């Protein structure tokens, strides 16, 4: 008699988080860390470019936004590819692309050559992040999914924060090209490691009806399995298939409203993040703060984001996601206003920028929220399209800093205006929660709202079977 089929998600939920899963988390952590380092690099080399190439700050706008255009296009294309061909192949290829392109950026001879190389770098970056989030989500047990995914995503904050400290050391000694060269060497080396050690998503393999031997080989690295050669595997609540359009699914199966709310929230959040990471050193320098101190203060933003992301991951596993994220964005708006009201106090700015980064950790959790919201057949697409659409907010934020400074707006005016997108992000996520709690005849779609069980029971609502 053949043994009953093994539910892969139930297997992951019932067993402890194994050393093999920690390895997967660490590898994904390294991917987003080098992603964060490269993404933040341009903010630290911008003052050197202005001096060395004798260009205006406004002329740097194409360079600052080129990678973001690449990020958007890379994310929009990588998700459907990963939902069709698998997460691992897209991750490895994308890391290799942005590593090589970053190394080429170090040899740029003009603004336009640097812009072209940064665009190619963005293509790789945009493809890497959504698929690492998706892969980590699909290897994590439900009870710790948000926390483990946010721990992995802290690599981005750590990489971005480290850029400030690395930049303050290497740029004065070796010039701005050294930072981009380092940003190329690390991911190229990492791509080789990933090719040898990173597994494909076992949930994706199960959904695509891969061989039982391949699935069993991966699961045995997590926990023991019966020795029978006739083992079979399945995913509860997910039918295997190949014909459904992952893009079309974002606007069907009850996903449409959530898709729009996720896009708006992430778009607004990235306006704030990219204006700060791209232009805060220059803004502070213009207000009279020495560049080394400005770099350290900017680094505090990403360190704050790292700690805030960990806390929010813990909270999301226990409480309603929309409440956690909405409150966080609201707190970010208050902190941003406080920065604008205190432009000259460097000691206070360190605290306020750290606090802002802590609250803006909500933006870092958004790919995790999206990964939990969408079904497996469109999950990589859902995460990557949210990232892709949101990147246009990043493009706006990265471009508008130089433009606003050229127009002569003060430090205070820029930061008071920057509070507006943070407030809009808080409202969008709050409305998403209200919609999925109260829409007539429907219940929350997935575990993104699992923390709200007590509220749901009080309202007489029942939870849908999670993905």
UniProtKB/TrEMBL annotation:
InterPro entries: MFS, MFS_dom, MFS_trans_sf, Sugar_transporter_CS. Keywords: Membrane, Transmembrane, Transmembrane helix. GO terms for cellular component: plasma membrane. It holds the Pfam family MFS_1. GO terms for molecular function: carboxylic acid transmembrane transporter activity. The keyword 4Fe-4S does not apply. Residues 24-442 form the Major facilitator superfamily (MFS) profile domain. The keyword Ion transport does not apply. It is a multi-pass membrane protein. The chain crosses the membrane at residues 22-46, 58-77, 89-109, 115-134, 146-167, 179-198, 260-282, 294-315, 322-341, 347-371, 383-407, 413-438. It comes from the Bacteria. CDD domains: MFS_PcaK_like. It is found in: Membrane. This is MFS transporter. It comes from Paraburkholderia panacisoli. The lineage of its organism: Bacteria, Pseudomonadati, Pseudomonadota, Betaproteobacteria, Burkholderiales.
């Amino acid at each position: 008699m053949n043994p009953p089929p093994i539910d892969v998600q139930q297997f992951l939920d019932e067993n402890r988080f194994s050393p093999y899963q920690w390895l997967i988390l660490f590898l994904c952590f390294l991917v987003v860390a080098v992603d964060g380092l490269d993404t933040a690099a341009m903010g630290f080399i911008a003052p050197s470019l202005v001096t060395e190439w004798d260009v205006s700050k406004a002329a740097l706008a194409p360079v600052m936004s080129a990678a973001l255009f690449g990020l958007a296009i890379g994310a929009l294309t990588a998700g459907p590819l990963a939902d069709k061909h698998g997460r691992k192949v897209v991750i490895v290829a994308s890391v290799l692309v942005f590593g090589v392109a970053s190394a080429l950026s170090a040899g740029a001879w003009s603004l336009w050559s640097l812009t072209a190389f940064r665009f190619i770098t963005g293509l790789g970056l945009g493809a890497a992040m959504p698929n690492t989030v998706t892969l980590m989500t699909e290897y994590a047990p439900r009870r710790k999914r948000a926390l483990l995914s946010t721990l992995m995503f802290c690599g981005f904050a750590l990489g971005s924060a480290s850029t400030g400290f690395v930049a303050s050391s290497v740029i004065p000694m070796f010039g701005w090209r050294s930072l981009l060269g380092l940003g190329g060497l690390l991911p190229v080396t990492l791509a080789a490691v990933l090719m040898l050690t990173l597994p494909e998503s076992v949930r994706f393999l199960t959904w695509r009806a891969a061989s039982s031997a391949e699935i069993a080989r991966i699961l045995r690295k997590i926990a023991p399995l019966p020795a029978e050669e006739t083992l079979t595997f399945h995913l509860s609540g997910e039918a295997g298939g190949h014909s459904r359009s992952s893009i079309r699914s974002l606007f069907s199966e009850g996903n449409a409203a959530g898709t729009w709310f996720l896009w708006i929230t992430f778009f607004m959040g990235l306006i704030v993040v990219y204006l700060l990471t791209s232009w805060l050193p220059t803004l502070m320098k213009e207000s009279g703060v020495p560049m080394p101190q400005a770099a350290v203060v900017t680094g505090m933003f990403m360190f704050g984001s790292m700690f805030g992301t960990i806390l929010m991951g813990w909270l999301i596993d226990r409480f309603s996601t929309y409440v956690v994220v909405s409150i966080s964005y609201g707190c970010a708006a208050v902190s941003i206003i406080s920065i604008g009201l205190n432009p000259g106090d460097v000691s206070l700015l360190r605290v306020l920028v750290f606090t802002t980064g802590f609250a803006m950790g909500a933006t870092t959790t958004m790919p995790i929220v999206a990964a939990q919201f969408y079904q497996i057949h469109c999950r990589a697409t859902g995460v990557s399209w949210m990232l892709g659409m949101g990147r246009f907010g990043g493009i706006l934020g990265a471009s508008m800093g130089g433009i606003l400074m050229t127009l002569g707006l003060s430090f205070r005016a820029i930061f008071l205006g920057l509070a507006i997108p943070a407030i809009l992000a808080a409202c969008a996520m709050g409305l998403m929660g209200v919609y999925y709690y109260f829409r007539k005849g429907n219940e929350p779609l997935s575990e993104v709202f699992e923390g709200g069980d007590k509220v749901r029971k009080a309202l007489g609502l029942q939870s849908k079977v999670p993905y």
